[in-house]
Each structure stands twice: as structure tokens, then as C-alpha cells.
């Protein structure tokens, strides 16, 4: 515990906010996309489109809120971008192979 | 519970800044939202009794419609059949109609008299409740972006920041939550008391606040969210759109009303039929919107569920009345709407939401006060920005309430002396609102708070006095124009008059006897003049 300053959260307000807003939104959409196509009822279930629209914002806003837990903006970028990459890869793999 | 200091500081900053940015518009959204819980009651209170004509038995409705259609061409375009016992059985728009808020709609009411002759009355549709609803949705911010209100979009974004404020508030409160949640420390000074009540209300009503924040974001921003979703859906259309109709129908082929009543009983057995709204009957896409009510379950609209059908073929096009056969997701989505509207537990539920909404408004008000106090501790001298923020907090919050109270106070008098009531509501609201802000900026937050609260108290009392005057002075025709079935509006006005009196007194005490360096302090020499002014006010 010698380098105590390094483990503390760096504010990086603007960069973290922007990352949360944009990468958070795209990640939220990827989760909703997986749910829309492969969740209960599939893509054609009645009224499901409304449910899907409703769950985008709480996922998105929760991601934004917790983006500020990352120690640095760089770390926030790495984690959010990887999360996006994984979920979109999964989505497109399912969508175009299955 | 232990949380690292740097996390707490980070989330304290987020909580503070999201709160400060959005507090004022959300205050208006919340207190006006509380009032919309009783929107039909407020509009009924403000509508002259003569406008509501006597109901007739359902069996006579067809005769009424035929008589009206014979005499009035407009009826063949569309009309409304109302089954509520306090409303006219039939109405149609002589001017306006359709979706959106217009202040000069002319509504014609019609019924049959004892000789089965058509009796009608034309009047301006009272919009007091709708204007309060508009204030709730836009915070009074005017302007349009595309087809959406600018105020709605601003409130949608504010609601998103408010969602972040809720999460961050919980995170940085966690360590001290258990220890000090129920401690309302009155003996540790005013700011400690404000902090404790802010935290207590925030935590106790947290689920309500998460629901309101989330639903408000969705109500305001559903169009962009659907836009993004259409990319996800790819070639799949989001909504099945019915092809535009090619058939035109003859008005005389409209089925008898009993058929609709039977159909609704079949489609929605747990609901009661409220109204049938026929529109575009003379086009190739005629529409019938059926409003049905259920008092003890979640509903899609504020006060009703809705079924759309083709009025001639009685084919259902869309319905928010679900059963286990037609959808799993429908009831869930309806519950999101119902949880915002507070319509699932009858009037008791509405009163609970009314109080929760007011407590929410208190949350934003007290949050601003806390921030101002905290800034002051950092800087002994009052900065200009603190003073302006204090003046805005008082001016915007109390000014907005004053605008609504003055509009309600003027409402009955406007009906007696004029016919253009709705437009005057707007003038009165904005004049009161900006006058209050101007006064606070001019004379400072402390004096503004005392004087505007006194104004509010007197205006609330004057609402009660208006009703009493109606009975004491029959020649004014107030009581005969507005025959009231209950006195809830007067009761609430009286309660709030008392609250504002007490609060003004406490504010004055703090201004003259509290901490001299506070933004809420009035310098001693000037305080004397205010004292005298208040005594004059309260004695006259």
C-alpha cells in the first residue's frame, strides 16, 4: 500500500461522462437487442417492442452512474469498449449464424 | 457499512451537481404533478354547472345522436358519448378537437329534455386541469422542437440526471445511513435539520423516486429510444401499421349504442365504460376511442384504459385492456404507466401520490438550501452567485406555486366577468411567476421568501373566501354558477394557507434572529421595516 495515490479515483469528469453516455448507451442497446431477439417470446411477441423501449433507459443510466467508479477514464474506456465488443459479437453471431 | 473516502467524495459531487442543475425544474414538475392527481376534480370545480347537462338513459342515446346529427353538420364528423353521471351525455367540438392543447376549443354539450327535444349548450372547454398537467410535463418552459415540447425534452433530460442523483445519493449515504437516518436533529441548528429531513424523505420514498425518474425519462424521450430500437430490429417493423382504409362509410350505418356497450362488456369485463369518442367519421379512416375505467388495478392512462376500434365494423385496432391470452408483456408495460400515474388504488392511492409528490418537491427545495448553506460555510462572505441562486430558488419554486394559486383564485371570477378564461390562466401564471422571481432578485431571497409566502397564504385564503362570498352575496351568481358537490379544493387551500403562514413566520424569525451571515438573513436595521410591513399585512 505504498502508492496510495494511484489507487484513488481520478475525477476525469468530462471524459468519464462522455464514455458513460455513448458507450453506455450502445451497451444498453446491445443488451436490449439480445433480449429482443432471443429473450422470452422472441422478436414477434405482442407489445414486447414497448417493453424493450422501456428497459433501455434504466440500463443506460445505471451504467452512466457506475462509470464514475472506474479509477481513470482510460480504464472506463477499456472496460466499456470490451463489454460492447463482447455483447455485439455475441448478438451478430447469433443473428447471422443461427 | 464502509465505503472508501474517494468513492464517497466522487458521488457526493455527482449528487450535488445533478441536483443543482435540475432541482428547480423538477420542483415544478413534482408539485404540479401532485395536483394532476386530481385533474378531473379541479376541472369540474372550475367548470360552470350549466355546462354539464343532464344524463339520459342509455336507450335514448341513439335518438339523441340522430337529433343532433339532423341539426348540426359537425356531429357527422365526430362526437363524444359520456357515461359519467356528472357529465353531459353528448358533446362535440364546434371548434378544435383532437390531440394537443388548445385554449380556444369550443365544446357543445347536448341532451334530450323530457319531451325528447334536443337541448344544447356551447361553452369554452375549461383547461385549468390540462394547463396544470402541461406545467407538470414542461415546467412551464414554452417552445417546440419538431412536434415535441421543448419543456418536455428538458424535463426528460432532467429526469435522467435525477436518476443519477438518486443512485449517487444512495452510494454516498450508505456509510451513515443506519446511524443517522431517523435522527431529526433539531437541536444542532437549522441546516442539520434540513439535511436530516432531506435524507429521511429521500430514503423512505426512494422506490417512488426511481419509478418517477425512469418513467419521466421514457415519457419524454420515447421517440429517440424507438429510433435506436428500429436499428436493432433491422427489417422487422416496430409496429404493425394498418393500411390506410379505402372504404368510406355512411353516418346512418353507425351501429346502435347498445352494441358498443355490449362489445365493451365483452372486451373489458372488469372495467366500466366511461366514454366513446367518435372521430373522422366522414373520412376513410374513422376512429372510435373507448375509455374504460377500473378503480383498483393499474391502468395505461392517468384515469382509464383505452380501446381503439373502427366504429362501423367494430374491429379492434389497439387495446390496453389485456388478458392472459393476448399478451405477456402488455400488463408489464401497463404497470410502468400505472406506477407513474398512481391510478391503481382509487382515491386513497391518489392522495398517497399527492403527498409523495409534494415531499419530492420538498426534496429539491431542501437540496438547494443545503447546497447554499454549505457553500456559505466555505466562504464567510456571501458571493454574488449564492445570492442569485438563493433568489432563484425562492422565486422559481414559490413563484410557480403562486401562479397556479392565483389562476385558481381568479378562475370563478373570470367566468362571471368574461368568457375567455383559459388564456387568462396563462397570463396570470406567467405574470405571477416572473414577478416573484424579479422580486426575489430585487429584494433578496430572505425578503422574497417571507413576502411571497404571505402572498400565497392570502391567495389560498381568498380561494376559500370566494366560495363563501358566493353564498353570502347571491347577486354575484357565483354559487349558482358553480354548484359544488364537495369542498376539497377549499379544504386543501385552507390547509396550505395555514402552512404558508407558519412557514413565513419561521422564515422571518430566521431572517431576523438567525445567523447574520446566512443568505436567509436580513440585516438588523432593515429587518425592522420588514417587521412593520408584515404586521400591516397580517392586520389588514
Automatic annotation (TrEMBL), chain A:
Transmembrane region(s): 18-39, 51-70, 77-96
Name of the molecule in the record: Uncharacterized protein
Keyword set, alphabetical order: Membrane, Transmembrane, Transmembrane helix
Species name: Litorilituus sediminis
Keyword Transmembrane: yes
Lineage top rank: taxon: Bacteria
From TrEMBL, chain B:
Annotated transmembrane regions: 12-32, 152-178, 199-221, 351-371, 391-411, 423-442, 454-474, 486-504
Top-level division of the source organism's lineage: Bacteria
The keyword Transmembrane is assigned to this record: yes
Keyword list, A-Z: Membrane, Transmembrane, Transmembrane helix
UniProt keyword Iron-sulfur, yes or no: no
UniProt xrefs under Pfam families: PepSY_TM (PF03929)
PANTHER family, sorted: IRON-REGULATED INNER MEMBRANE PROTEIN (PTHR34219:SF9), IRON-REGULATED INNER MEMBRANE PROTEIN-RELATED (PTHR34219)
UniProt name for this protein: PepSY domain-containing protein
Originating species: Litorilituus sediminis
Lineage: Bacteria, Pseudomonadati, Pseudomonadota, Gammaproteobacteria, Alteromonadales
